[in-house]
Write a structure and sequence with these properties.
Bound molecules: protoporphyrin IX containing FE
Distance between the termini: 35 Å
Pfam family, one: p450
Strand order of the largest sheet: 1-2
Family: Belongs to the cytochrome P450 family.
Low-confidence stretches: none
Cofactor: heme
GO molecular function: heme binding; iron ion binding; oxidoreductase activity, acting on paired donors, with incorporation or reduction of molecular oxygen; steroid hydroxylase activity
Protein name: Cytochrome P450
Number of domains: 2
Shape: globular
């Protein structure tokens, strides 16, 4: 989407791959430096020199993004790009947004290169870890829930048949896979909490909140609350049938957040997860192997991720 080459299978030394590893390590809850910075925020400047590899790769990563923008600006100036072929980078480069000036009037302006770099960086940061973790979690859950896997597979075959690349419309119709992914995100939420800053003093249900406080909403505790999800420890994708969803308050399950800061990658995230799983499930049966550990050990890096990867057995379908 940004012309940024990060195909790990072609190039295991790709900057993007190395940067994401360093970023994850650096923000992992089990990294003592990150842990100290979290508890004693004021120590962050002193701790930064211990985070050398991440800092070095961050510079390389940002330079790669700048290079993509420069190359694309030249291409746009020399050849132009057909509107049907515009990718996200083109939209960021050509689009305008409304900004309130000091005199209080609104005006439109384009994004500067540094603003485009920041947007790309946050889309990559927000998108890669969550997608990887959620696909890995679903693969694990498919392995340990063979009957539900069979229902998902049957639904894929009924809707997509033997088509190599399912269409958007077909992906939307994969209801069993939808339910399976949602139940996986309930038990293994890659984003287990949300954070909001109070913009004014207020009181909710007798609890005072002061302006400037950062409030963390731990969704994972709601997902394990028996009054919303009976027998919460049991994997049951039928909790996400339309009828069951309607019985619950909509805010009891927010895997992509809520409100104006809701995940902007929601649609692409769902589509990519489903497209990847359709490809895998049509070729392979996913089973537990002697190395499969269930419940899966997880770690916060900074998304909830499998602690030591996911081990399953893949058997080619005949
Ligand atoms: C399984 C996939 C994903 C999950 C579960 C997920 C989950 C979330 C959650 C819970 C938030 C916080 C929302 C809030 O505070 O209300 C968020 C924010 C964000 N996500 Fe995702 N996400 C996923 C995929 C993606 C993808 C693919 C992208 C980029 C293409 C992306 C980009 C972002 C960004 C940029 C933010 C910050 C938004 C803001 O602060 O305004 N996410 N995501």
């Amino acid at each position: 989407a940004f012309n940024y080459k990060g195909n790990i299978l072609d190039d295991p030394n790709a900057t993007l791959f190395r940067y994401m590893r360093a970023f994850n390590h650096s923000s992992s809850a089990d990294n003592p430096i990150a842990g100290l910075a979290r508890v004693f925020e004021s120590l962050t400047p002193l701790l930064k020199p211990f985070d050398k590899e991440h800092a070095m790769l961050h510079v390389q990563h940002v330079n790669e993004i700048r290079k993509c923008i420069k190359e694309e600006r030249e291409r746009l100036a020399n050849e132009g790009v057909d509107s049907a072929e515009r990718n996200l980078l083109h939209h960021l480069m050509l689009g305008t947004f409304l900004e309130k000036a000091e005199d209080g009037k609104w005006h439109r302006r384009g994004l500067s290169d540094e603003e485009i770099v920041a947007h790309i960086n946050s889309l990559i940061g927000g998108g890669l870890g969550t997608l990887n973790a959620s696909i890995e979690f679903v693969i694990h859950m498919l392995a340990v829930n063979p009957e539900a896997q069979q229902r998902v597979y049957q639904n894929i075959m009924d809707v997509c048949g033997n088509e190599e690349n399912p269409s958007d419309k077909q992906l939307k119709e994969l209801e069993e896979l939808d339910k399976f992914i949602l139940e996986t995100l309930r038990l293994l939420p890659c984003a287990p909490g949300l954070a909001r800053t109070c913009t004014e003093d207020c009181e909710i249900n007798g609890v005072p909140f002061r302006k400037g406080w950062v409030v963390r909403i731990m969704l994972c505790t709601v997902y394990n609350d028996e009054s919303f999800f009976p027998k919460p420890e049991v994997f049951d994708s039928d909790r996400f049938t339309t009828e069951e969803k309607e019985k619950r308050h909509p805010y009891t399950f927010l895997p992509y957040g809520q409100g104006p800061r809701m995940c902007p990658g929601y649609h692409i995230g769902v589509f990519q997860t489903k497209a990847a799983l359709v490809k895998i499930l049509r070729k392979y049966v996913i089973e537990s192997s002697p190395q499969t550990v269930d419940p899966l050990p997880v770690a916060l890096r900074p998304m909830l991720s499998p602690k030591d990867g996911v081990c399953v057995k893949l058997t080619k379908r005949t």
